[in-house]
Amino acid sequence: MTNPFVVGRSPRICHAEPPRSIRAHNPEGSHRPSRPSITRKTPHRTAPPRTPGSGSACYGTIPSRVRPEPRAHNDCPTHLEKADNAMTSTPTRIHLPIVSGTPVGSATASCAVQMVDPPDEDVRIDLASALDRAQLPPGRGRLAVVAMSGGVDSGVTALLMKEAGYRTIGINMRLFTPDEGHSHCCSIDDMEDARAVCQRLGVPFYPLNMEREFVGAVIDPFVEAYLAGRTPNPCLECNRKPKFGFLLGRAKSLGAVALATGHYARTERGPDGAFRLRRAADERKDQSYVLYTLTQEQLGRVLFPVGALTKPEVRALARQHDLPVARKAESQDICFVPTGDYAAFVLQRRPGAARPGPIVDPAGRTIGEHRGLIHYTVGQRKGLGISGPEPFFVMELDVAANRLVVGTARQLGLVALTANQINYVGGAAPDGPLPIIAVLRYQGQELPATLLPTGPDTARVVFAEPTHSVAPGQAVVFYAVADRELVLGGGTVQGTERAA
Length: 500
Hints:
The chain is of the alpha+beta class. The chain folds into three domains: 8-349, 3-Layer(aba) Sandwich (Rossmann fold); 354-410, Adenine nucleotide alpha hydrolases-like domains (SH3 type barrels), CATH 2.30.30; 414-498, Translation factors (Elongation Factor Tu (Ef-tu), domain 3, Beta Barrel), CATH 2.40.30.10. It is 19% helix and 23% strand. The strands form five sheets. The protein has a six-stranded antiparallel β-barrel with strand order 16-19-18-17-20-21. The model is unreliable at 1-61 and 63-116 (pLDDT under 50).
């Protein structure tokens, strides 16, 4: 069996008309078929001009399995929260940086914005030092798949995997095409940036059309959760299913020993042989919160090479090795809601879902009328259209009665929550009550609490001090008290409890 990644050994790898769903780029190719024309809404910023000998595009289906070449030697953005601040629902105006004299973009929602880290051109890092800190298992010519998003993190991940001795291929997942034809994330530009990085590194590149899987696994559950008055986090579901479900499965079917991603997190193996998940070295970029769903089997095949580096060091590596995404802005939006207007997105798919109804106080007295429950979230203060001696906050979305329950700040406090769909990273639930640090949103406040398992995948979390703005559907992630970098597990908030 010949290796389809080597040009000339398989005449079937190139097609005059590339399949729409899966296209492949081979940097060593000599034959370039015609490509479908693509009209961009924004200019492509980062792909370098082609020069003779720099490589050419070659489209084809991903082979069912890849046989290694003969050798001497024998493995999760953006994060949605309906309310990042319990005391306000008014979107915060974000002052965006200027890159080359041009604003990166503009937005009023905390999720829908592109940002770039403050430039630090003086930062430098030796590649050997970066590899030593990443502590990657030796590649020894074995195959590894890199999830290529088109950003700098996945680009440097591909660089590190290749330099660690892995025979690397890059796969870009095409997840969603918004109706307006453009998104800050998962766009055609991102796919082209990913392809340009692979070309620069000399590794094969494969785009995968996964829109159907993404809609079924992420978008439809997001819409249904919103309609049920819950606060979903689609990034968690994207990690759980498309990325570490489907893509990891595809990597295994190709014969890859690892799937590497650009997530900021770290893994290690404990004395008992179990894999552990830890916060990233750069806490400002830490993404362990959205990776708690990883199982022991998945952790055994997943690598996070940039988790041991800081973001400035990642950008420095990209600059030093001439990656075309070294100065690319960082996406912070939800890929399928580029405007940040989640209610409008839900209404587009479920017309008539916003039914007006009563606003009631904790005693059930009607004090106003709401516009439809999908426009509100627990903890919201502004935009309620009611007033009183004290400010009102949303306490509950009563979907069954179509009521919006509001109360004062004193009535908002929560003492405990119940959670289901719990995954314990170590593989087993604790034997009894366990002191933990609970985190309820990405980069959120660390809350001392006690974890009380009530079943194999259910638990009650009791807070040391009353907290607020906890809504069903949110993720609650458990970190160790003695080692706050260690992720113990997490689950989905099912209900909340207030003081008597």
